[in-house]
């Protein structure tokens, strides 16, 4: 196999060493008569597939970052170990994608330089391990976190147009090594097969925008109002969750609703707490070590007031934003205690924001008494009842009778034979499509979706017309003045046509140019072959 003129022996040697682990020069490699075999081609195809597989996983890893705090909480609940597992995920994924990318680039460059693709056995083992690790990651995702597949589908509404451009660009660049291989190989069947596959893929990509939809493909004057922000347990990236400090930080972020979770102590005092146990967000293990594993409702209010509900935030750093807190905020965090529902209602009333809460645990034997105690605190607080959003389904009719002014929020979609029309729904963002959001908006039903932390997701829901979103990142979403991107359909159509035309012309140029280069090499190769034949005959004589 002859070297193309543009590729010097030194460059070819530099490419051969890391790919084949053969520490000899390219000239010696050539003299040994090594060529790319069918087995080598199969390993190159496997390398290409592993690269794509890992690239898809990288995309998933970036998408699931929106919900990764839930995963961290799940691991803590199971193992009592707190760690930001998103860093582990991103580092591991970066290593895998970097390794497969480097190998693929080396292989493509070797092909352009006319060198054999002799992948070393160590690389083969590592590629197999990479494929197994990524396959295990996808399998685990499907078993334990299946809702993230819905998140991936939603993400395509934000990334679809740009992914299309990127994939078309990547496949266009692939035309160069493909053309080089086609003009070098003498296997006609393999040539035809590769060209048919490549042409089929490119035609599919050129027509892919016909199936790409996004709510952000609209005119600017059609953009719905910006969704209101609901602080998930306050502002948990800026202060310890479910504390008064978190509520005030949420107010500073212009949230309209403070979302929290309520439990009732053993002596009947409703207080703010998400977990059934106190171990994650308090120092209960230090203060009451023998009772640390008990349910939060087993403690009386006097005991709960002895617990530090803020220092864990600085020690465990549940979000990267904790590192950037000011000295004053750090000191304030260490002084936080578990607030009662009455204290939270008073703060919400003074800040003129609404409060929305779940009442936990719903399977408790004394749940009705929890409802009664909570209603009593609400009615005694003096807060306007329209500022209270009631989420629990248990004893909802009783709540409507005793506090008819409280806004009822349902954690389900409306039914076909709904007796009483729904006015407010609160659902995971994966459970509602853009079409359903638009329909609910037309029917004057307020839709709140949770938990939305990433700007790309907020942008998609904004374009869809959602009423509000529950978020951990109120300080980020507050600063967004418009969606990340907004394109009129006509503009996207023009971009689509231009990208496809440029891609087609580039591919055509690549094949024509390399065909011309291959014709120039053939006479020199023929003369070399004749000369080598004569020398061989003289040596035999």
UniProtKB/TrEMBL annotation:
<feature type="transmembrane region" description="Helical">
    <location>
        <begin position="192"/>
        <end position="212"/>
    </location>
</feature>
<dbReference type="GO" id="GO:0006629">
    <property type="term" value="P:lipid metabolic process"/>
</dbReference>
<dbReference type="GO" id="GO:0008889">
    <property type="term" value="F:glycerophosphodiester phosphodiesterase activity"/>
</dbReference>
<comment type="similarity">
    <text>Belongs to the glycerophosphoryl diester phosphodiesterase family.</text>
</comment>
<feature type="transmembrane region" description="Helical">
    <location>
        <begin position="125"/>
        <end position="143"/>
    </location>
</feature>
<feature type="transmembrane region" description="Helical">
    <location>
        <begin position="163"/>
        <end position="183"/>
    </location>
</feature>
<keyword id="KW-0812">Transmembrane</keyword>
<feature type="transmembrane region" description="Helical">
    <location>
        <begin position="493"/>
        <end position="514"/>
    </location>
</feature>
<keyword id="KW-0378">Hydrolase</keyword>
<keyword id="KW-1133">Transmembrane helix</keyword>
<keyword id="KW-0472">Membrane</keyword>
<dbReference type="Pfam" id="PF03009">
    <property type="entry name" value="GDPD"/>
</dbReference>
<dbReference type="InterPro" id="IPR017946">
    <property type="entry name" value="PLC-like_Pdiesterase_TIM-brl"/>
</dbReference>
<feature type="domain" description="GP-PDE">
    <location>
        <begin position="227"/>
        <end position="481"/>
    </location>
</feature>
<dbReference type="GO" id="GO:0005886">
    <property type="term" value="C:plasma membrane"/>
</dbReference>
<keyword id="KW-0325">Glycoprotein</keyword>
<feature type="transmembrane region" description="Helical">
    <location>
        <begin position="41"/>
        <end position="65"/>
    </location>
</feature>
<dbReference type="InterPro" id="IPR030395">
    <property type="entry name" value="GP_PDE_dom"/>
</dbReference>
<protein>
    <submittedName>
        <fullName>GDPD2 inositolphosphodiesterase</fullName>
    </submittedName>
</protein>
<feature type="transmembrane region" description="Helical">
    <location>
        <begin position="85"/>
        <end position="113"/>
    </location>
</feature>
């Amino acid at each position: 196999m002859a070297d193309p003129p543009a590729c010097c022996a030194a460059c070819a040697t530099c490419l051969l060493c890391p790919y084949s682990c053969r520490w000899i020069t390219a000239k010696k490699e050539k003299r040994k008569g090594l060529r790319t075999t069918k087995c080598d081609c199969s390993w190159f195809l496997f390398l290409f597939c592993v690269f794509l597989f890992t690239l898809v996983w990288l995309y998933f890893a970036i998408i699931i970052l929106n919900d990764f705090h839930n995963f961290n909480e799940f691991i803590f609940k199971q193992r009592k170990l707190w760690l930001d597992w998103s860093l582990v995920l991103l580092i591991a994924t970066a290593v895998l994608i970097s390794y497969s990318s480097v190998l693929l680039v080396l292989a493509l460059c070797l092909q352009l330089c006319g060198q054999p693709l002799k992948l070393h056995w160590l690389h083969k083992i590592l590629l197999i391990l990479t494929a197994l690790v990524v396959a295990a990651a996808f399998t685990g995702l499907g078993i334990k976190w299946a809702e993230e597949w819905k998140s991936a589908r939603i993400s395509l509404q934000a990334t679809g147009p740009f992914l299309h451009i990127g994939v078309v660009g990547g496949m266009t660049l692939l035309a160069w090594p493909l053309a080089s291989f086609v003009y070098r190989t003498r296997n006609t069947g393999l040539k035809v097969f590769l060209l048919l596959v490549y042409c089929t893929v490119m035609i599919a990509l050129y027509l892919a925008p016909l199936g790409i939809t996004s709510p952000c493909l609209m005119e600017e004057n059609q953009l719905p109002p910006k969704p209101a922000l609901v602080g998930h347990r306050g502002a948990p990236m800026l202060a310890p969750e479910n504390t008064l400090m978190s509520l005030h930080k949420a107010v500073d972020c212009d949230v309209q609703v403070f979302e929290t979770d309520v439990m009732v102590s053993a002596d009947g005092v409703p207080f703010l707490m998400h977990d059934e146990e106190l171990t994650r967000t308090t120092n209960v293990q230090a203060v009451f070590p023998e009772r640390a594993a008990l349910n939060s409702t087993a403690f009386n209010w006097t005991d709960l007031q002895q617990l530090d509900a803020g220092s864990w935030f600085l020690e465990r750093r549940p979000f990267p934003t904790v590192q950037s807190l000011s000295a004053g905020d750090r000191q304030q965090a260490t002084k936080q205690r578990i607030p009662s529902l009455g204290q939270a209602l008073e703060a919400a009333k003074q800040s003129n924001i609404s409060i929305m809460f779940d009442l936990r645990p719903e399977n408790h034997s004394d749940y009705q008494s929890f409802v009664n105690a909570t209603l009593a605190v609400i009615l005694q607080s003096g807060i306007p009842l329209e500022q209270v959003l009631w989420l629990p389904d248990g004893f909802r009719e009783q709540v409507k009778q005793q506090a008819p002014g409280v806004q009822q929020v349902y954690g389900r979609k409306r039914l076909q034979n709904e007796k009483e029309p729904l006015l407010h729904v609160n659902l995971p963002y994966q459970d509602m499509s853009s079409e359903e959001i638009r329909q609910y908006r037309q029917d004057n039903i307020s839709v709140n979706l949770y938990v939305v932390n990433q700007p790309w997701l907020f942008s998609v829901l904004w374009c869809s017309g959602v009423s509000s979103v529950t978020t951990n990142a109120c300080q980020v979403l507050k600063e967004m003045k418009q969606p990340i991107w907004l394109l009129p359909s006509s503009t996207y159509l023009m971009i689509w046509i231009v990208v496809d035309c440029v891609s087609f012309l580039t591919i055509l140029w690549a094949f024509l140019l390399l065909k011309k280069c291959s014709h120039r090499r053939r006479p020199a190769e023929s003369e070399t072959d004749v000369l080598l034949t004569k020398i061989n005959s003289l040596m035999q004589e």
